[in-house]
């Protein structure tokens, strides 16, 4: 399974960015999908996840109400719409795929990882 993330970039506080992750090499519908992020000098942290059917989404408290995760079965992609960005959202964002539960927030629950895409938010 290969995951390719894109869409990162630079933004100012209050702006929006949309990340996308394309999954190839296996049946997309088998996997719970998630986004994690890692800021410099910090541990990797959970951001959001979505179940296999796409009808349940879960969020870290720090992003709830600002970020929206979605998945597109026809395109084998998962997206993270990030609105009202804050400087503390600055991090390398990773998409991940796993076969656990849609609410899984532990990185250990995910078997496949993409290379990160950088998001930098200035104040």
Give a structural overview.
The protein is mainly beta. The chain is built from no helices and 11 strands. The protein has strands spanning 2-6, 9-12, 17-24, 32-38, 45-50, 57-59, 67-72, 77-82, 91-98, 112-113, 117-122. Strands 2, 4, 5, 6, 9, 10 and 11 form a 7-stranded mixed sheet that branches. A hairpin with a 6-residue loop joins β5 and β6 (57-59). 33% of the residues are buried. The mean pLDDT is 96.
Provide key terms for this protein.
single chain; 123 residues; mainly beta; seven-stranded mixed β-sheet; globular
Structural class: mainly beta
The dominant shape is globular
Question: Rg from C-alpha positions?
Answer: 13 Å
* Helix fraction bin: under 10%
**What is the count of DSSP helices, taking H or I runs of 4+ residues?**
0
List the helices and strands and how they pair.
Elements: E1 2-6, E2 9-12, E3 17-24, E4 32-38, E5 45-50, E6 57-59, E7 67-72, E8 77-82, E9 91-98, E10 112-113, E11 117-122
What's a concise summary of this model?
The chain is an all-beta fold. It is built from no helices and eleven strands.
């Amino acid at each position: 399974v290969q995951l390719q993330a894109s869409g990162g970039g630079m933004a100012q506080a209050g702006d929006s960015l949309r990340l996308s992750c394309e999954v190839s090499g296996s049946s997309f519908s088998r996997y719970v999908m998630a986004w994690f992020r890692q800021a410099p000098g910090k541990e990797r942290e959970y951001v959001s996840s979505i179940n296999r059917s796409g009808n349940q989404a879960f969020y870290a408290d720090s992003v709830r109400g600002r970020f929206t995760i979605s998945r597109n079965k026809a395109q084998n992609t998962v997206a993270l719409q990030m609105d009202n960005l804050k400087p503390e959202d600055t991090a390398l964002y990773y998409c991940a795929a796993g076969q656990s539960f849609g609410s899984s927030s532990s990185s250990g629950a995910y078997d496949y990882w993409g290379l990160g895409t950088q998001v930098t938010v200035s104040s």
